[in-house]
Amino acid sequence: MVREFEGKTEQEAIAKAMEELQLVQEDIDIEVVDTGKRSLFKKGNVKIRVHVRQQKEEKKKEEETSFDEDFEEKIVEFLSTLLLKMGYPGTVEINFRRNGKIGLNIVSEHSAIIIGKKGKNLDAIQLIVNVYAGQLLSHVKVVVDSENYRMRHEEFIVRLAYKTAQNVKKNGKSQLLEPMNPFERRLIHTALNDIDGIETKSEGDGLFKQVRILVDDTLPPLRQ
Amino acid sequence: MEKDLVEYIAKSLVDSPDEVEVNVIEGEQSTILELKVAPNDVGKVIGKQGRIANAVRVILNASAAKGNKHIQLEILD
Fold it and tell me: Is A151 part of the contact surface with chain B (CB cutoff 8 Å)?
């Protein structure tokens, strides 16, 4: 199967493709059709062509985890009661069940405050729901989302990584990003891993470390 | 209202929900909530490096954002 996707950046196009096809990057081959460098003033979109590996589609189905109905009911109930007691009622639906994770989606008119600044409230809610879920069932991870915030935030972080890396390359000066959690930091490290001449390092202590993006001046090994 | 919220979260996390107690101390500009749980459960509401306690505080503050009062959570042991 071959499909085409467009986005402002290559990353965005890939993210779009993965979301729509419900596949992870390992399951698809990506070919950049149009890099979007059309002219100085007009920024064209990047167009990519995605080749889906057929055999992998069956594998993906196996990875779908099913949970006890009772368990699902309990965490949905817990989260909706929590929201109600917070004074921001909403409905909770199950987004996905995959690789031992269960995704919950909050639909509420109060989603702005439920998410909070930089997702602070959503993260706190997610932590409490995970502690609660951990009592019922071990080795389960609950992802709490609203208004597709998690995915939008991921895109934002990756875009920030590229933008900062470009600046660092241009000025030769390293830049320190604001404190981030391990998941966010990993997004930055992996996004910039393939970029030549750029290096990333984590600085600081505790859960929230800062990523420094710097010029990597060690020469790549010569090919012989 | 906020008392209810803390009570609900604490009761969901501890082994002895019957021993969860929340006292409200109303001040002029702020409200202090004192959370009391069974000795064995103190760790459950605080968490590693206070992660759970802090998450409860964040949730509490989000909930209290409607009013104009500061809310403080204290865990008694």
Answer: no
**CATH 3.40.50.300 is the classification of domain B2-76:** no
Shortest distance between the Cα of B55 and any Cα of chain A, in A, equals 5
Task: Report CB contact under 8 Å: B5, A124.
Answer: no
CA distances (Å), A109 to each of A72, A88, A106, A113, in order? 23, 8, 10, 9
> Is the complex ipTM more than 0.90?
yes
pLDDT of residue B33: 96
Residue B63 at interface with chain A, using a CB cutoff of 8 Å:
yes
Whole-number pLDDT of residue A162: 94
The conformation of residue A39, written as its DSSP 8-state character, comes to -
Question: Sign (positive/negative) of CA torsion A144, B63, B54, B13?
Answer: negative
Residues B27-59: tens digit of each pLDDT: 888 899 999 999 999 999 999 999 999 999 999
Rg (CA), chain A: 20
Chain position carrying tokens 């992660």: B51
By the CB < 8 Å criterion, does A124 face chain B? yes
pLDDT tens-place string over residues A37-81:
655 565 667 778 777 776 544 555 556 778 888 999 999 999 999
CA distances from A4 to A13, A17, A58, A75, B11 (A): 9, 8, 22, 38, 51
Domain residue ranges of chain B, discontinuous segments joined by +: 2-76
Contacts of B53 in chain A (CB under 8 A): none
Judged against a pLDDT cut of 60, whether residue B23 lies above it is answered with yes
Q: Is A84 on the interface with B (CB under 8 A)?
A: no
> DSSP E strands: which ranges in B19-69?
21-26, 30-36
Angstrom distance (rounded) from CA B11 to CA A129: 13
Report how far Cα A4 is from the mean position of its chain's Cα atoms: 21
Residue in B1, B49, B58 nearest the CB of A124 = B58
